[in-house]
Design a protein that fits this description.
Layout (H helix, E strand, L loop, with lengths): L3 H8 L4 H12 L4 H10 L4 H10 L18 E7 L13 H10 L4 E4 L2 E4 L2 E6 L5 E6 L13 H12 L8 H4 L8 E5 L2 E5 L7 H4 L18 H4 L6 E7 L3 E6 L12 E7 L2 H9 L5 E2 L8 H4 L4 E6 L7 E3 L9 H10 L2 H8 L4 E3 L23 H10 L6 E8 L4 H13 L3 E8 L1 H5 L8 H4 L2 E3 L9 H7 L14 H12 L3 H18 L2 E2 L2 E3 L1 E6 L2 E2 L2 E2 L5 E2 L4 E2 L1
Parallel strand pairs: 1-10, 1-11, 15-16, 15-17
Antiparallel strand pairs: 2-3, 4-5, 5-7, 6-7, 8-9, 9-10, 11-20, 12-20, 13-17, 13-18, 14-19, 21-24, 22-23
Length: 552
């Protein structure tokens, strides 16, 4: 039963954007899941959102049963070996981000379906979303003993936003946050003054931006010597290409970690990790590819944690030159894909169908009314004929030997053969494929048609800008559309969920028409855990939170 007086009291001090979200939830236009996720993005706490749901007459969320976990365990993790550079300012790759996430923390955590407070306790935008103000947690200390304050957050974000530092975070912050835009209000308050309105900004300073762990203001790019973070574990030992161990931080600001120790064993590939788990040498495989890890998916001695994500393996087609300059040819290739076969066959059901835009089903702003593209060989042949290529063509697809990409590429090769395209495959190591990640020095950015791989993001902003905008640094398709650029900017600036969804629908339909990039599926983040181990908390961005892990 709806309790209107209580609902009115809860709403009286909220912004118009907050209240419009509640209206959508009450009227049934916004699901409970999307209400909680969008509410957490706007800085509304989970208890508050629960009170709103009760007042609106929807009842409380079901209680989650908690495992009885014994403290004091040593948790052993198999993971990819990090590269030589472990500086969080510039470091990337799954092994590196997993390492510095063990000792460092973020302002907030991009957990499944919501943003959770961490070093920030709350956040809120101004009226138009150009300034986001974060309140910081008090009493947090770095492992060196220094208290974390606003100056540390300002210095951290300035380092990431400074083009001179060449941080991976520039793919997130370019055009959003400049050096100097993060400003101290007081010791425990920081205001982000943005280049323009941004409705999804908290995701950009969350764990979804893997470089954004908060480091001391005095940090001098010596992370491998200091490992100075605020997290629940401290480094015990790190050996390049071998492994790392961490011990419980007894001075941690939150509940003390249950494990007394965590150990990470580095591997170059997935198969040795699977063998190590089966042999009892490790307890967890942090990231398990569905195809390579098929033996574990139905193993009764293993629990596979599956998280729906926006992680994807896009296929770009160069729009300004060669056979794919004609959008009819790009559409024809897209119509060759059997997306259900990709999900159920290649990915063993551990993925969701894509619709040739970055708007994954996990995003609340994705417009579900946009028609799903399906395999249609007859229509594809007609498009090829209309483009004057009925006699066929030969083209080379360039791709890295990574995850399911080789098998995915072979499927595309067989499907497009039905419409007269002789697709040659040029497979290479991942490092050679990406090269220096700049045009002229990267097979990824220079190929006529090619793959890439992108991890989960809590919001689609970086996919919309870096990959598809005319000036995007990762725009391998050379797609240039003033209409698209305007729509992408409009989406990014929208604070309201329903306004975001309306613009997203326009973008989704435009990309179906233009088809610069194929998004065949979005794959789940899989983490394999030995039976008897509980409390493991992976994220879609390949992070692994172990402070609540132990034997059950």
């Amino acid at each position: 039963m709806r309790r209107n007086n209580l609902l009115d009291n809860l709403r009286c001090n909220l912004s118009s954007v907050d209240n419009h979200l509640i209206d959508g939830y009450v009227d049934g236009r916004v699901s409970r899941r999307d209400f909680v996720r969008q509410g957490s993005l706007l800085g509304l706490s989970l208890p508050f959102l629960g009170r709103v749901a009760l007042a609106a007459g929807f009842g409380a969320a079901p209680a989650v049963a908690r495992a009885n976990i014994m403290p004091g365990a040593t948790i052993r993790v198999a993971c990819l070996s990090p590269g030589a550079n472990l500086d969080p300012v510039v470091g990337g790759g799954p092994g590196a981000l997993l390492m510095y996430q063990q000792v460092g923390e973020f302002l907030c955590i991009d957990a499944q379906d919501l943003l959770q407070p961490c070093l920030a306790t709350s956040w809120k935008p101004n009226q138009d979303g150009t300034i986001w103000t974060f309140s910081l947690r008090k009493g947090v200390r770095f492992h060196s003993g220094v208290e974390m304050k606003a100056d540390d957050v300002v210095a951290t974000m300035d380092r990431l936003a400074d083009p001179k530092n060449s941080s991976d975070a520039l793919s997130v912050f370019k055009g959003v946050l400049q050096k100097g835009g993060t400003r101290r209000v007081d010791d425990y308050t920081v205001a982000f003054h943005l280049d323009g309105p941004n409705g999804n900004f908290p995701y950009l300073v969350s764990s979804g931006n893997y470089n954004a762990i908060v480091l001391p203001a005095s940090y001098s790019r010596d992370f491998e010597k200091t490992w100075d973070g605020t997290g629940p574990f401290k480094l015990e030992k790190f050996t390049q290409n071998v492994g790392a161990s961490f011990v419980r931080n007894d001075d941690y600001w939150g509940p003390k970690a249950l494990p007394v120790k965590t150990e990470f064993i580095f591997f170059a590939d997935i198969q040795p990790q699977i063998l190590a788990l089966q042999a009892g040498q490790v307890d967890i495989i942090n990231s398990l590819p569905a195809l390579a890890g098929v033996a574990l998916l139905n193993d009764p001695t293993v629990d596979v944690i599956s998280i729906k994500s926006s992680a994807n393996l896009p296929v770009h087609m160069k729009c300004d030159d060669g056979p794919f300059k004609d959008p009819r040819v790009r559409q024809a290739v897209a119509l060759c894909l059997d997306r259900e076969k990709l999900v159920q066959g290649l990915m063993k059901g551990r993925a969701t169908v894509g619709n040739d835009s970055p708007f994954a089903p996990v995003y609340p702003s994705t417009d579900p009314t946009v028609p799903q593209r399906k395999q249609d060989i007859r229509a594809a042949r007609e498009l090829i004929k209309a483009a004057g290529l009925e006699k066929g063509l030969q083209v080379t697809l360039t791709a890295p030997q990574h995850l399911e990409i080789p098998a995915y590429a072979q499927l595309i090769q067989s499907w497009v053969k039905e419409i007269g395209i002789d697709l040659k495959l040029n497979m290479m190591s991942r490092s050679s494929f990406y090269g220096n990640a700049v045009p002229g020095q990267s097979p990824w950015l220079d190929s006529v048609i090619g793959f890439s791989d992108f991890g989960h993001r809590g919001a689609p902003n970086v996919f919309l800008t870096a990959i598809l905008m005319s000036n995007g640094p990762w725009n391998a398709s050379h797609f240039k559309s003033a209409e698209y650029d305007t729509l992408a900017k409009s989406y990014i600036s929208a604070l309201d969920l329903e306004a975001q969804r309306a613009v997203a629908g326009k973008i989704q339909r435009l990309l179906l028409q233009e088809t610069p990039v194929l998004y065949g599926y979005f794959y789940d983040k899989l983490t394999a855990v030995k039976k008897g181990i509980a409390g493991v908390q992976p994220t879609g961005m390949l992070q692994l939170f172990l402070q609540n892990a132990g034997k059950s």
